[in-house]
Design a protein that fits this description.
Rna Polymerase Sigma Factor, Chain: A, 8 helices, globular, mainly alpha, Arc Repressor Mutant, subunit A
C-alpha cells in the first residue's frame, strides 16, 4: 500500500479538490484492491491494475454524486482575482513566486472543473503528467482514438472557459462555469 499510495492519491487528486474526498477515494481504492486481489492476473503491472481501479472508483464516485455543482467565477478569492489582473496587465518576464504558483494552480483547477471527469482525466494525464496516449488508454481501458478525442475536446473546453473568463474580466459581468460533462 505504501508503495502505491502516491500514485493512487495523485489520481484521486485529479478528480477531487477536497482533501477529505481524495482520502475517501484512496481508501475505497485500496479496499477494492484488497477484496479483489485474487482477480489480479499478473498480466500487467500492479501499478497499472491499481491505476485502473483508482480511475474507475473516482469516476463512479462522481457519477453517484449525479450533478457536479457549478462554479462561479465570482467565487474567486481576492488572491486569484489579483493574480488574474496581474497576468492580464503584465507582459511577462517575471518569475512567479511560490504563492503565485499556488494561485495559478487553483485557478487552473477551477478551469478544469468545466470538464467531464473522463475529459479531465485524459487531459491531466497527457498534458499534466506527460503520459502517452497509449498509457492513458491502458490505464482507462479506452481505445487510443477515444483518448485523443477526449484530450482534444478537453483542451477546447478549457480554452473556451478561459476566453469566457477573460471576457468576463473585461465586462465586469458575473460568469458561471458549469460542468459540461457528456
Amino acid at each position: 500500500m505504501r508503495r502505491y499510495s502516491p500514485r493512487v492519491f495523485s489520481i484521486a487528486s485529479r478528480f477531487f479538490r477536497e482533501r477529505a474526498t481524495v482520502e475517501e477515494a484512496a481508501q475505497d481504492v485500496f479496499l477494492k484492491a484488497f477484496t479483489q486481489l485474487e482477480s489480479y492476473e499478473g498480466r500487467g503491472s500492479m501499478e497499472g491494475w491499481l491505476t485502473r481501479i483508482a480511475t474507475n472508483t473516482c469516476l463512479n464516485m462522481i457519477r453517484s454524486a449525479k450533478r457536479r455543482p457549478e462554479s462561479s467565477m465570482s467565487d474567486l478569492s481576492d488572491d486569484e482575482n489579483d493574480w488574474l489582473d496581474q497576468k492580464l496587465t503584465t507582459v511577462g518576464g517575471d518569475m512567479p513566486s511560490a504563492e503565485q504558483d499556488v494561485i495559478a494552480a487553483d485557478l487552473a483547477e477551477r478551469l478544469l472543473g468545466v470538464l467531464s471527469p473522463e475529459d479531465r482525466l485524459a487531459l491531466t494525464m497527457i498534458d499534466g503528467e506527460d503520459a502517452t496516449v497509449k498509457e492513458v488508454a491502458e490505464a482507462t481501458g479506452w481505445s487510443e482514438s477515444k483518448v485523443k478525442v477526449r484530450a482534444f475536446r478537453a483542451r477546447r473546453r478549457v480554452r473556451e472557459a478561459m476566453e469566457r473568463l477573460l471576457t468576463h474580466r473585461k465586462t465586469g459581468r458575473e460568469l458561471k462555469l458549469e460542468g459540461e460533462g457528456e
